[in-house]
Amino acid sequence: MVATFTMMESQVEAPNVMPRDGKLVLSRLGAGESIIAAPTPSLKMVLEGEEIYEADGRTIRVGAGQFMYLDAGEECRALNRSLAVGLCLFLPPAETGLAGSLACGDDPLLGRVLLLSSQASTLGRMLDQFGRMLAARPHLGPSLAPMLVGLARDTIEQPLAESRTAIAAINAAKMSTRRELHAKLETARAHLHACPHRHVPLAELAKVAGLSQFHLARFFRDAFGTAPIAYHRALRLERAAEALRRREMSVTQAAEAAGYSDPSALSHAFRRHYGRSPRAVAAVADAA
Question: 18-43 b/e with 16+ CB inside 10 Å = b?
Answer without folding.
Answer: bbebbbbbbbbbeeeebebbbebbbb
